[in-house]
From TrEMBL, chain A:
<feature type="transmembrane region" description="Helical">
    <location>
        <begin position="46"/>
        <end position="67"/>
    </location>
</feature>
<feature type="transmembrane region" description="Helical">
    <location>
        <begin position="12"/>
        <end position="34"/>
    </location>
</feature>
<feature type="transmembrane region" description="Helical">
    <location>
        <begin position="79"/>
        <end position="99"/>
    </location>
</feature>
<protein>
    <submittedName>
        <fullName>Uncharacterized protein</fullName>
    </submittedName>
</protein>
<keyword id="KW-0812">Transmembrane</keyword>
<feature type="transmembrane region" description="Helical">
    <location>
        <begin position="111"/>
        <end position="129"/>
    </location>
</feature>
<keyword id="KW-1133">Transmembrane helix</keyword>
<keyword id="KW-0472">Membrane</keyword>
From TrEMBL, chain B:
<dbReference type="InterPro" id="IPR010982">
    <property type="entry name" value="Lambda_DNA-bd_dom_sf"/>
</dbReference>
<protein>
    <submittedName>
        <fullName>Transcriptional regulator</fullName>
    </submittedName>
</protein>
<feature type="domain" description="HTH cro/C1-type">
    <location>
        <begin position="5"/>
        <end position="59"/>
    </location>
</feature>
<keyword id="KW-0238">DNA-binding</keyword>
<dbReference type="Pfam" id="PF01381">
    <property type="entry name" value="HTH_3"/>
</dbReference>
<dbReference type="InterPro" id="IPR001387">
    <property type="entry name" value="Cro/C1-type_HTH"/>
</dbReference>
Amino acid sequence: MTSASNPHARRYMLHMLLAMVGYTALLFASITVLRGETITNDWLRIIIAISPVFPALYGLHAFITFFRSMDEFNRAVISEANLISAGAVAFLSFAYAFAQQASDLLPEIGLIWVLPAIVGGQGLAACIVRARYR
Amino acid sequence: MKNRLKVLRAERNWSQADLADRAGVSRQAINAVETGKFDPSLPLAFTLAEVFGLKIEDIFDPKG
């Protein structure tokens, strides 16, 4: 039950939209404030820098609520997709770190890419897992 | 696990979506159970049996 006709899916999309709007607004606001150099206290700068994470966490909460509303088949698909994605990102980053330590050829990759990689990987893995049941 | 969902649906002229609505699950779930690619939980098996007015063992064959 993931279609737009499903009330749980509609609620999820609404809450996710709110989370994304909040995330975008706080991201631009935090970048603007931090570039202004008016705030010099390190702890305050850290709090401002991580502020976009809070609406993103609200998005995670919306996803978990939606996950709990799914039937057992869709929960199984999403669970397996999450396992594949988290595992792939964990082991790829683990292997990359080993390779990076052994050579100067590879550039450093920021931790900021972990979340997008897991989310993107989850979407891709869900398509593959779902195709297996067709 | 083998099952008679497709036959039972056909007897009642129900689509997968009709059965999904009656059982309170997604059409994908019905399709996955019907094709034997996904084994339903005991509560879902009971729900499906109730929808058809049959016993679980009349629908599902664990040896299949």
